[in-house]
Specification:
Strand order of the largest sheet: 3-2-1-4-5
Distance between the termini: 114 Å
Organism: Ramlibacter monticola
Subcellular location: Cytoplasm
Oligomer: single chain
Radius of gyration: 54 Å
GO molecular function, one term: nucleic acid binding
CATH class of one domain: Mainly Beta
Low-confidence stretches: none
Strand content: 15-25%
Main location: cytoplasm
Pfam families: CSD (PF00313), Excalibur (PF05901)
Number of strands: 5
Mean pLDDT: 76
CATH architecture of one domain: Beta Barrel
Length: 203
């Protein structure tokens, strides 16, 4: 604990004196070695701590001049603030930085890659195996597409079933695909009248 007082009865030849405490009480012995390098003048206000000598008598130690006291106090406060800042930085590094955040980022990247892979796999499976509703729609749309194609064709089903009754490969193909009871695809390969109208040379 520090006290305040004024330098009193200083003996320059013997290198010691006394400090009279501002709060009152007995004068405190002070040796020149306890004083700051710049010797204080008579009755100058000083700051000091109290210790006991070998005989158990009180003496002033760590004496500071008033100006030095203000500077030392500011230095002490700055040093304390720096210690607190370093402690908080070390604590913050353990909580908010370092391996913790790196592990979090790695987990986010891995999760994103897995999600993207699952999405791509689902898209491939969906393309290969359409949903039941989609398959039914496609199957039901098949005859409709055939009807649309048939209605857009210049040919009409009129009961003819033989290749000799056709006038072109296009007409024979239309009858084979759209008209019942045709007899124009003997080998069943989907190409009608291969001997007359749809030979390899004419295709």
């Amino acid at each position: 604990m520090r006290f305040a007082g004024r330098l009193h009865d200083w003996n320059e030849q013997r290198g010691f004196g006394f400090i009279r405490p501002t709060a009152g009480g007995d004068d405190i012995f002070v040796h020149g070695s306890a004083l700051p390098m710049l010797r204080p003048g008579p009755d100058e206000v000083l700051s000091f701590e109290v210790a006991l000598d070998r005989q158990g008598r009180k003496k002033a130690v760590h004496v500071r001049r008033q100006a030095d006291e203000a500077s030392a106090l500011a230095t002490d406060r700055l040093r304390d603030a720096q210690r607190v800042e370093r402690a908080l930085a070390r604590k913050g590094a353990g909580v908010h930085h370092g391996p913790g955040i790196v592990q979090g980022l790695v987990m986010m990247v891995i999760t994103g890659v897995l999600a993207w892979s699952a999405y791509r796999a689902y898209g491939v499976l969906a393309a290969r195996h359409p949903a039941p509703e989609q398959a039914v729609a496609e199957r039901s749309a098949g005859p409709l597409q055939d009807v649309k194609r048939a209605s857009a064709s210049p040919f009409r089903c009129d009961g003819r079933t033989q290749c000799s009754q056709m006038t072109s490969c296009a007409e024979a193909t239309f009858f084979l695909r759209n008209c019942p009871g045709t007899k124009m695809d003997g080998d069943g390969d989907g190409v009608p009248c291969e001997q007359q109208w749809c030979s390899a040379e004419s295709r």
